[in-house]
Automatic annotation (TrEMBL):
Gene3D superfamilies: 2.40.50.1070, Nucleic acid-binding proteins, Vaccinia Virus protein VP39. S-adenosyl-L-methionine binds at Q272, F301, E322, D369. Residues 9-21 have a biased composition (Polar residues). Belongs to the class I-like SAM-binding methyltransferase superfamily. RNA M5U methyltransferase family. Coiled coil: none annotated. This is 23S rRNA m(5)U-1939 methyltransferase. It comes from Pseudidiomarina indica. One of its GO terms (molecular function) is 4 iron, 4 sulfur cluster binding.
Length: 438
């Protein structure tokens, strides 16, 4: 039989090596400990600056923690019983102050490294509840047909494996209390075998269970869902590729509170995860923008109006741009109902603005709140129009630094910055920044 040459895989060529006595010298932007080994810098999850650890080298830049030889003084015992396995709250081994200080340092370092930029002033971070704060969560589901067994939980770090959980210390308490009854319910439903995932959302009016499915559940499942909805006082919705269907809910938008106003929202809409800090952040952004009835504000990545409606309440004219048509319609409806001076447009902000009618209006103030990818195209469009003030809300310091460089090239200065502790216990970072023309 012919034989073929089979190259060794990378893993075969580089057997993992273990190293002892490694000092963690800092954390990277993903919250992983940095060690300097004879084979170069490696990143180790679950470690704290000052730890002395033993590791197994697993890749060119990665190492896995084997044991902590000497714990750092800033290390605390993670309170969550799923900490070792669940991929969620990866910084809970750091004391509270260490977490936000690390995040603020990370933003400062990135701005300096990629944009040669320092904020003229860092305000004290916005902080709030550090546990039971999340008002929205997506749970992974796996139905083992052979064993007729359900796994409901969160994914392990860098893995598709689902870690079954019965309680979660960062979920808002009413959502946390739903986890066990929800698991019992799903074990009974026929549609569980085809369930993609489940989302739990806390709106002002009601808790929502959103089932992601290929088709709406059958009559037998409907009955069980109705009983569950009544017993636990929740609304149940189903999302398929074709439609969002209220199974046991009124077919109308719910809402969440944002700085003196209720923002209409559907279960599939984006919503800031931390209720208390979202409100604080909106208040600070309004303080920086200082909108008045004389201002023309352009808001990019507006979602369903978390910032838009409170800004328009001040009398400023707001032009709000968002990429998801249903959210644009909802935002426009909310503004119309509240008689607020808002015009909402749907546009893909990854594209240039040459075809956008709204782009020719004069704006003196701009607010942008992009997703992690940042605003590579939009930031140039904004900077060329030279508004007097730009507030940039970011959930990714690397893309913030990239976009900030464009603003600096167009003559803007970073006047103020403030960390928002929106995702305590995790490595995720939220920061707000105020730019003005120099
Ligand atoms: C971080 S969320 C902020 C939403 C809103 N500012 C809030 O506080 O709820 C980012 C928003 O940008 C929208 N978005 C993402 N990429 C976009 C694009 N290329 N064009 C337009 N909108 C986009 C998303 O749909 C989402 O609503």
């Amino acid at each position: 039989m012919a034989q073929f040459y089979k190259p060794q895989t990378r893993a075969q060529r580089q057997p993992s090596r273990s190293l002892k006595g490694q000092q963690v010298v800092g954390l990277d932007h993903l919250g992983r400990g940095i060690i300097r080994t004879p084979q170069g810098t490696k990143f180790v999850a679950g470690t704290a600056p000052g730890d002395v650890i033993s590791v197994s080298v697993t890749g060119r830049y990665d190492a896995q923690l084997i044991g902590i030889e000497q714990p750092s003084a800033i290390r605390v015992t993670p309170p969550c019983s799923y900490y070792q396995t669940c991929g969620g709250c990866d910084l809970q081994h750091l004391a509270d102050d260490e977490q936000w200080q690390h995040k603020q340092r990370t933003v400062q370092e990135m701005l300096k490294k990629f944009a040669q930029l320092q904020a003229q002033q860092w305000l004290q971070p916005l902080r709030g509840a550090r546990w039971h704060y999340r008002r929205r969560a997506r749970l992974a589901v796996y139905w083992n047909r052979q064993r007729q067994q359900l796994t409901l939980g969160f994914r392990a770090a860098k893995s598709k494996q689902i870690i079954a959980i019965d309680s979660c210390l960062v979920l808002a308490k009413p959502l946390d209390q739903l986890l066990q009854p929800l698991r019992s319910l799903l074990e009974q439903l026929q549609c569980t075998a085809r369930l993609g995932h489940v989302e739990l959302i806390e709106f002002t009016q009601q808790l929502v269970v959103l089932l992601r499915l290929p088709e709406v559940p059958n009559a037998a499942d409907h009955q069980q869902l109705q009983a569950f909805a009544e017993q636990h006082q929740v609304a149940v919705w189903a999302e398929t590729d074709q439609a969002l269907t209220p199974l046991h809910a009124r077919p109308e938008p719910m809402s969440y509170r944002s700085h003196r106003v209720e923002v209409a929202s559907w279960p599939t809409d984006f919503m800031q995860g931390h209720r208390e800090l979202s409100e604080q952040m909106v208040a600070q952004v309004i303080q920086w923008l200082a909108p008045t009835a004389q201002d023309q504000v352009l808001e990019l990545f507006a979602g369903s109006g978390n910032f838009t409606l409170p800004i328009a309440l001040t009398g400023a004219q707001v032009t709000a741009i968002e990429g998801i048509p249903s959210m644009v319609n909802r935002l426009q409806d909310s503004a119309t109902q509240l008689k607020l001076p808002v015009v909402a447009h749907c546009a893909n902000l990854e594209e240039t603005w040459s075809q956008q009618p709204w782009a020719n209006s004069p704006f003196n103030k701009v607010l942008l709140d992009p997703a992690r990818a940042g605003a590579a195209v939009a930031i140039g469009e904004v900077a060329r129009r030279q508004p007097e003030r730009i507030v940039y809300v970011s959930c990714a310091p690397d893309t913030l630094a990239r976009d900030a460089q464009v603003l600096v090239e167009h003559g803007y200065q970073l006047k103020q910055a403030q960390l928002v502790d929106m995702f305590p216990q995790t490595h995720h970072i939220e920061v707000i920044t105020l730019f003005e023309r120099g």
